[in-house]
Amino acid sequence: KVAIKGIERELICPACKELFTHPLILPCQHNVCHKCVKDILFAFEDSFADGGSESSNQSSPRIRISASSMDRIDRINRSGIKRNSLTPRSTLFPCPGCQRDIDLGERGINGLFRNFTLETIVERYRQAARAAIAIMCDFCKPPPQESTKSCMDCSASYCNECFKIPHPWGTVKAQHEYVGPTTNFRPKILMCPEHEIERVNMYCEICRRPVCHLCKVGGGHANHRVTTMSTAYKTLKEKLSKDIEYLISKESQVKAHITQLDLLLKETECNSERAKQEASQSFEKLYHVLEEKKSAALRAIESSKNIRLEKLQTQVEEYQGLLENNGLVGYAQEVLKETDPSCFVQTAKQLHKATESLKSFRPAAETTFEDFVVDTAKQEDILTDLSFHSNGLEIPEINEEQSRMYNKALISWERPGKTDSADTYILEYHKVNREEESVTWQTTEVCGKSKILSDLDDDSSYAFRVRGYKGSICSPWSREVIMRTPPAPVFSFLFDDKCGYNNEHLQLNARRTSVESRAGFPLLLGSERLQVGCYTTLDYIIGDTGIAKGKHFWAFHVEPYSYLMKVGVVPSNKIQKLFHNTHDVTSPRYGQNSGHDSGSEDAFFDSSQPGTLVTLGMKKFFIPATPAAPKDPASRILPLPACLGICLDCDRGRVGFYDAGRMKCLYECEVDCSGIMYPAFALMGGAAVHLEEAVRAKYREYHDDI
């Protein structure tokens, strides 16, 4: 067995660095003292109020505020709630153990479980550490005697004499549970933090926490998979025992890993020094190139300056000669006395050159040096983006087919080649807003090739890009990919296998997330009656959860081979009519050559439908024939998207049908939301529909969190 003194590191609070006192279990499965959680929440608020300065509260643990946390705290501050001196206003803070953002919800600290098991282990450790220090009786008159037992029901320690007084023989208190002297008192029954009068009796396998029956019936765990507490206790205990045995059996392997890690530490030190030298040499080369360019530019400017000064000085001397040479005027007067025309013309031409130079004065050289301005804008941009790029590290590409936007965002990427893969990746994203001039990217580091993001706003477009890192080398950024979030929060439900479910025509899978209609013998019998004008009815199925208010979105996939389907919503007061409706759109009178007005029949059937439904089938999406719809029937037929979504806004009384891949609205109409609304599906012939699965973290990510 592991010695009690060997686990001290596991008993230290990551915030105060001391032994745990009343530890609370955070949603990320780390433990923090109750007092430390309150201190961190207060410190987080103070840090935000002081601009995120870490020095704003020196007595609080050092915390790191991410950009997303600042935005969420800002929304909390704008809500106008005043701070109580005893209770922190904020419910958002970074976990001291993993630095992930923890949102405690509306209940705040009261919604966290107290880790009594860890508290007991800490108490045993304290008792082993202070074996010489006795626990005194709480009821002895001074001087108190050393206690011999502690009552778990009374939460007090007694000596032998004092224990008999409140626990007389033959009374109910005599049945109290007592143990050896201890200061660790915990309740016998663990109560639910959300329903304080209910004891926990189930274990939610999705959230990995104990819950009560009210949480399962109408709380936040209504659609979650739960198991009994005894089953969870047995399963988790067996798993923990196997993990302990595995760790003990791998002791030699762990030591080998430690030796290998020591070598890697030394190798990392050497490689970092080598990388520093290479980086210094690279920058020295840049300095040398810049110095050469600088010297050449200065020499060119100096040479041009000397040439221009020489020309200007020569011109000055010429004009000074004109002023000093007064005989030129007398010489010109003598030339005027010449009577021979040919001789006069020859001499006067020379004098005209001197006078023309005075009339059209022009400097011999320019004074500006505009041709010698160095444009370094492009070079500055290149130097700003200067990083440790490598030709061997390929640019990752975001895979839009594997990436999804649903209840959360799943961003996946891949590398084109198979060599020199990156060790880590940096994923950046920002909300696309055309009005903002500057863009602020939010950054997250990822070890794998996918990342789940849960802090995105609904009905918004986001841009994503990723780059890989291998040691100190990084690849260029990938191409930016823009994706849009659903128009409303995602609504989770399963197919209802009780209300109106026809198990002869429809087949549900075990998880109730897929339903299939098979064109079998019953449909052939129904088709036989078409000769006498009967109708072949659709098989309806609804969701097991209704919507009373708010705005909600859900998505599903329709198999390409599906012949005929209807999807939409139906109110609770018309569900019975839905399953007992004898009319349907499949009629022998619908033939093109039947001689009947199909348009009038469309209007009849649309008005007779118990809910708001649209028709799908044969890889097509049919926009209903309404006054606002196009008159041409061909323009009302659209290709069926790979994933179809429905957005129900009960407050506005609107329902929209979306291409869930692009989050583009295909058709929207009014709907009566006076009652509780249920998702509705109708199938006929060979057809199948699959509900879109929620984006959840993989087991590997859960394991890393633990």
TrEMBL record:
Residues 187-229 form the B box-type domain. InterPro entries: B30.2/SPRY, B30.2/SPRY_sf, ConA-like_dom_sf, E3_ligase_FN3/SPRY, FN3_dom, FN3_sf, Ig-like_fold, SPRY/PRY_TRIM36. The lineage of its organism: Eukaryota, Metazoa, Chordata, Craniata, Vertebrata. The gene is Trim36. The keyword Repeat applies. It comes from Chaetops frenatus (Rufous rock-jumper). GO terms for molecular function: ligase activity; ubiquitin-protein transferase activity; zinc ion binding. PROSITE patterns: B302_SPRY (PS50188), FN3 (PS50853), ZF_BBOX (PS50119), ZF_RING_1 (PS00518). GO terms for biological process: acrosome reaction; spindle organization. Signal peptide: none annotated. Pfam families: zf-B_box (PF00643), zf-RING_UBOX (PF13445). This is TRI36 ligase. Its main location: cytoplasm. Residues 258-285 form a coiled coil. It is found in: Cytoplasm, Cytoskeleton. Keywords: Coiled coil, Cytoplasm, Cytoskeleton, Ligase, Metal-binding, Repeat, Zinc, Zinc-finger. Residues 395-488 form the Fibronectin type-III domain. Residues 473-700 form the B30.2/SPRY domain. The keyword Ligase applies. GO terms for cellular component: acrosomal vesicle; cytoskeleton. It comes from the Eukaryota.
